[in-house]
Amino acid sequence: PGTMRGLADRRDFLFGVAVASTDLLDPTASKILQENFNLLVAENIMKLQYLRPSPTLWNWRPVDDLVNFAKEQRMKLRGHTFLWHNQNPPFINRLGRNDRDQAITILEETITGVLTRYKGVFYEYDVCNEVIDDEGRFRENSPWYRAIGPEYIDMAFHTARKADPNVKLILNDYNNEYKGTIKGDAFYELVKSMVERGVPIDGVGFQLHLMAEHPLNEEALRANIQRFRELGLSVSFTEVDVRIKLPVTPEKEAAQKATYESLLRIALEEDVSCFVMWGYTDANSWIPGSFPGYGSAHIFDEKLTPKPVYFAMQEILKSY
Ligand code: G3I
């Protein structure tokens, strides 16, 4: 009960993390997962590049292992992700303007295949990921957009709902967390139009890959959460991390801690559906590979020791 997981369970708060397959096999990592989290998401293995590397090949085994681990540990699962512009297999990357029918078939087979095999298993699923670009327009460098057009998003949600009526269907993105920004407002308008069209969307995901050097705009975040709630949708924090521009200094660490604390408080106060971090340790982080010069983004350090921010978050969970 004193563990992070115990504290989250006590108030039915979904506190989660993205995991690599190796985490489940490693005793130290798996112990950290068990003691701290009640929700997991695969960092990579459910992306189509890995899950469906060719039209006839389905790589279920790593997903089954994750599903079984979560079941044994009584953890919930998020699904990530069906339609994205990254980490696709060649047969999807190849899709072009003249392949509309084929693309629709692949879309339907993939979503139905996964949600039939894992019917009732996922708490929520990122049906589409990052469909809006930084200018607030539909992202064009996606094979799905190229082959099908913007309707691919509605199609994906309808297909998912048909395959599993109970999984919560989520549209996930980054830089979409603030009301009053170009991308934040474009994302909201898209979602609002989906709701108005009767598309079966249940919630939105804010990834929240943040930087310690930019203080959180709490007001714009809360206002954004509220307007989605007014549409009848849930809001999930799906990929939280707060990277630091190296070298780490006590000031930057304090700023990072403040951001994690505010996010957790907002999640608790605004009834956010789940709080999921994109990795737990600097020992295995996507940040240095994607943002050279940045690091130390997670709540455990490279030696798997919890940082002060970890204990601060524990205190917040205790106090709500
Ligand atoms: O699978 C190969 C492996 O065979 C090879 O030996 C190794 C050598 O570099 O690379 C492996 O692939 C890497 C893959 O992660 C699995 O580890 C890719 O190079 C690497 O680019 C890929 O990065 C992932 C990234 O998405 C791809 O865009 C990160 O792990 C993952 O954390 C990141 O996650 C995304 C979310 O899905 C969506 N939101 C943004 C977030 C951060 O970029």
TrEMBL record:
It catalyses: Endohydrolysis of (1->4)-beta-D-xylosidic linkages in xylans. Residues 1-316 form the GH10 domain. It holds the Pfam family Glyco_hydro_10. InterPro entries: GH, GH10, GH10_dom. It is an enzyme of class 3 (hydrolase). Its EC number is 3.2.1.8. GO terms for molecular function: endo-1,4-beta-xylanase activity. Gene3D superfamilies: Glycosidases. Keywords: Carbohydrate metabolism, Glycosidase, Hydrolase, Polysaccharide degradation, Signal, Xylan degradation. GO terms for biological process: xylan catabolic process. Belongs to the glycosyl hydrolase 10 (cellulase F) family. This is Beta-xylanase. It comes from Winmispira thermophila (strain ATCC 700085 / DSM 6578 / Z-1203) (Spirochaeta thermophila). The lineage of its organism: Bacteria, Pseudomonadati, Spirochaetota, Spirochaetia, Winmispirales.
